[in-house]
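Fold this sequence, please.
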Amino acid sequence: MKRSKLWDAVFLAPCLIALTMIVLIPFVQGINFSLTDWNGINSVINYVGFNNYKDMFQSVEFGYSFVITVVYTVINVILVNIVAFLLALLVTSKVRGKNFYRAAFFVPNLIGGIVLGYTWQFMFNDFFTSIGKILGVGWMSKSMIANKDLVIFAMSVVNTWQYAGYIMLIFVAGIQATSQEVMEAATVDGANYYQRVRKILIPMIANAFTISLFLTITNSFKCFDLNVALTNGGPSMRYMGKVVKSSQLLALTIYNKSITSKELAKGQAMSVIFFLMLVVFSLIQVYFSKKKEVEA
């Protein structure tokens, strides 16, 4: 049957209309508001040009949030993908009960970030500290989320616990799509398990790594609900002579600037830069990952 472009347009129209109204128009309006002094309440709006962007780049709070968000993202990319890949190797092996393990590892991803944050807050503040005191381990007897030097790592551990099971499924799909004959031939040639995984399996599932890295980067940059529930940005610390919140990521900084401080125009300016930064980091990652796929 001949395909009609008219019917294609008819079926695409609802999605395009929704995309335009929910994403494109608000995005353009947001850029416009970022050039004003709008606080979300006053009906009189004055244009201030790029003053909001100038103030933002001079803000120590924004600068620290940017740095700590990048650090948090790097830690997450490493932890989540290593743990997810190891879990994928486990559940695609000949271990008994592997289907149960797949479900068990994925379940944490179904828990909402707010619930997850408050649950792990109890774990860090009460459970782990009690164990640390019983065992006499000094660093463990104090809450990690109350330590400015460990709080970002603690958040990354929680994020890995929640998100690794989801990324695991991407690796599982890639592993199951690979030719087992190649792996068997390598075994016959005398390659051990580590060599087969490193030299054969990883290059063959390079596209799975591209997808998982992209998802991990975007998920880490956009982290908000876990940040609010687990630490709410705390504890406080001094940075470049100013008091800042040691675990306040960019998304929470934007929220506080827009909603708590009632400076929506400045918060919107941060959102625009946040969007551009996320696009740049994602495109760079995809470019190098795709390049690696071709080389593999």
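Strands lie at 236-239, 242-245. Residues 155 and 277 are 22 Å apart (CA to CA).
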